[in-house]
Amino acid sequence: MEHERDESSGAPLLIPHGSVIVADWHRCPDSKEYFSKIFQKKRRKTFGLLEAPAMPPQIHVDTVRYKVFLAGKSGVGKTALAARLGGSDIPTMHYETTGIETTAVFWPVKLKDNGQVLFFKFHFWDCGENALRRFDHLLPSCKEKMDAVLFLFCFTDHGSFEDLSNQISRVSHPSHRIVKLVVGTKFDLFMHTDVTEREIRTFQETSGLPVFRVGGDVNAGLGEVAPLLNALAEHLWHQDCVTASCAPLSSQV
Question: Where is coiled-coil annotated (predicted)?
């Protein structure tokens, strides 16, 4: 279902899944050569700030880079989500992030209109809530030149769901042209959920923001992270095309 808002206001413009990029391309045979470059010994490879997937010389792939801020109450799982999306081990115990932690995640995508393959480099920024309250300069640093924000809540903490509106108003402004997605963590603990599906549907209808669900153990597959990373890539690329009036790729990479 497509939800549209007024572009002039900067409000969300949500696009149908698979309208910009090839949906579930990670399952297609022609994607294997690209996805193999983000794996090492059957595990997702951890990339440093200056590292990138190494493709054969005869295959040229452009890389587009985006800064993504993770927002949410303390304990909702921001650090765990960054680890999950990056293929790293998820911390077994919760600890408050003392400052800003960054995670670089590469994700290959095939554009639907021309079949071009791009590597999306997501630079996830995670900052602890206590640190944000103590040091006034941290939130502006996280928001500076950000392209997207993931608003997190925990399915076992109804207060974190109620805090979403506060997080959205604090981090973003209606005039800001940034991608906004909502992520519910610990969805695997459905027996203990404090947030109902009716509440989720109502929130999506009133806010115009999609809600993604994550939870469970991380394994070698991509099925648990592909929906969120694909949606992030799709909305960011569409936003760039709209902002640049579909300018040539050379001006966007």
Answer: none
Residue identified by tokens 């696009």 is 15
How many residues comprise the chain?
253
CA distances to 77, 161, 171, 183, 229 from 146, rounded to whole Å, are 20, 23, 10, 18, 16
Instruction: Compute the distance between CA of residue 235 and CA of residue 20 in angstroms, rounded to an integer.
Output: 8
Query: Residue 44: which of 16, 84, 14 has the closest Cα?
Result: 84
pLDDT of residue 9: 39
Instruction: Provide the 10 A C-beta neighbour count for residue 59.
Output: 10
Distance in angstroms (rounded) separating the CA atoms of residues 15 and 4: 8
34-251, what's its fold?
A: Rossmann fold (3.40.50)
Q: Are 234 and 226 in contact (CB under 8 A)?
A: no
What are the pLDDT digits (tens) for 170-182?
887 766 789 999 9
Q: How far, rounded to the nearest angstrom, does the alpha carbon of residue 174 sit from its chain's CA centroid?
A: 19
